[in-house]
Design a protein that fits this description.
With 452 residues, the chain is of the alpha/beta class. Helices cover 38% and strands 26% of the residues. It starts with a strand and ends with a strand.
Length: 452
């Protein structure tokens, strides 16, 4: 094994979070190593919708041209579909560039973020796979990685190691108490030369077995994501092709259907697990979890990158602030303040993701939610402010959630209450509570002391 090199910061994973953090810190004079096993343009089916608040975080970090040069598409709001009926909701009733989201190909966006790292002498881009972590007692000192070019195992030491390579249990088992709960998977297709019912909008189709998402990722490509719940009997191989054609196709808006069937015939689709991973970090000096290594939620609301970039901005600010006071002696302050403060910013987005997903899969609450949002005004714009990440007001989320449940109850009791309808109404409220309470508990802040 070759002799180790010491850096101020080692970032494991050059995806959205890792690349954005390295870019944000690139002018601070810190020596940074960022390790990834693939520096070619990645091909992923999620991480392709950036909500307005995520775009705002990039601008705040000085990455204002993040959407330029790779055919990113502005997103102005959402269209919602149920049983052939539809309507759209803008992010805002005002013309405001700060309330615009973006759709793009994930790989192109990551390469754009990585482009900020070029020609930085103090940033070292390493092509390799991290295979182990190096500890000195209770402190993380760095990593061991397999260099892709030489195939040699190498040590890399750093004052602070940031793990941002997804949910690699092998690497993060000593850094978190959380367990990944796999909820199912998303199947992704690209529709070419396809018109959307509402141009420059994300679309949610309330369907079976789960919601279907659609949004532009280039000027002539639409991403479609189809949810398959965990306990649903999932088709495979040729059965999947038949299932998509016969079961999913009729639920797609008619204007998109021809392109959808053409994409199904090509069978060029990929899948990605949908997971719930609450943030339950263990405080270990010299180590921080970031992005999907720390926290995951359902992609229905497109909140993943907003959470990641919010964390990047918060962590970057703490590193910048404390590096001027003595970086190494303030490692404990950086990690504790980061983990403690992120709850306030990100809990609402995380709760909304699985709450809305569960509502869309509920036969009664889904219709109530559709009708509630269709009322417009504050009934649509306030929930949209939470979806976009521009509002992180948890009380506002809970209030609208139970207003939707009460809306369902009132509809259930019409035209007049009966014992049967009252019983069904009580079940609806129980179902609503069963959805929201576990999510609130999952998001309860929890930071654990090292067990090493």
């Amino acid at each position: 094994m070759t002799k180790s090199t010491k850096y101020d910061i080692c970032i494991v994973g050059a995806g959205v979070a890792g690349s954005a953090l390295a870019s944000y810190l690139s002018n601070q004079g810190l020596t940074i190593a960022i390790i990834d096993q693939n520096w070619e343009e990645p091909d992923e089916i999620i991480g392709e919708l950036l909500q307005p608040s995520g775009a705002l975080k990039l601008r705040e970090m000085g990455l204002a041209d993040f959407s330029e040069g790779f055919d990113a598409q502005p997103i102005k709001g959402y269209g919602l579909y149920l049983n052939g009926d539809s309507f759209n909701i803008p992010y805002s009733d005002q013309k405001d560039n700060d309330k615009t989201g973006y759709g793009f190909r994930y790989g192109r966006f990551v390469q754009k973020l990585r482009s900020y790292l070029k020609d930085k002498d103090h940033i070292h881009l390493i092509n390799g796979k991290v295979i182990d972590l190096i500890y000195d007692g209770a402190q993380l000192e760095g990593v061991i990685y397999q260099d892709k070019l030489s195939n040699q195992k190498k040590k890399l030491k750093a004052t602070l190691t940031i793990l941002s390579q997804g949910s690699s249990v092998r690497l993060t088992k000593d850094l978190t108490k959380a367990k990944i709960d796999t909820k199912g998977f998303m199947l992704g297709l690209i529709l070419e030369n396809c018109e959307l019912p509402y141009p420059n909008h994300g679309h949610v189709i309330i369907a079976k077995p789960g919601p279907i998402l659609a949004y532009p990722v280039t000027s002539n490509k639409i991403r479609v994501l189809i949810d398959f719940p965990k306990y649903y009997e999932n088709p495979r191989g040729m059965e999947m092709k038949t299932y998509l054609r016969e079961k999913i196709g009729p639920q797609i808006p008619e204007i998109m259907r021809k392109s959808f069937y053409e994409a199904v015939e090509k069978e060029n689709y990929k899948t990605k697990p949908t997971c719930l991973l609450p943030a339950k970090p263990i405080l270990i000096k010299g180590a921080i979890l970031l992005g999907d290594s720390l926290n995951q939620r359902h992609p229905t609301t497109g909140g993943g990158m907003t959470v990641a970039l919010t964390d990047v901005k918060a962590l970057g600010d703490l590193i910048i602030k404390n590096s001027k006071k003595g970086f190494e002696k303030n490692l404990g302050i950086i990690s504790r303040e980061f983990y403690e403060s992120r709850y306030k910013e990100n809990a609402t987005i995380n709760i909304l993701a699985y709450a809305l997903y569960s509502v869309f899969r509920h036969p009664v609450l889904s219709k109530a939610c559709f009708d509630y949002l269709q009322r417009g005004g504050k009934f649509a714009l306030e929930p949209m402010s939470i979806l976009s990440g521009l509002s992180r007001d948890r009380k506002l989320l809970i209030r609208h959630f139970f207003m939707v449940a009460w809306f369902a109850v009132k509809n259930m009791l019409k035209p007049k209450p009966t014992l049967s309808r009252i019983g069904d109404s009580i079940k609806i409220m129980r179902d609503a509570i069963a959805i929201i309470v576990p999510l609130l508990l999952h998001e309860k802040p929890a930071i654990y002391s090292t067990n090493k």
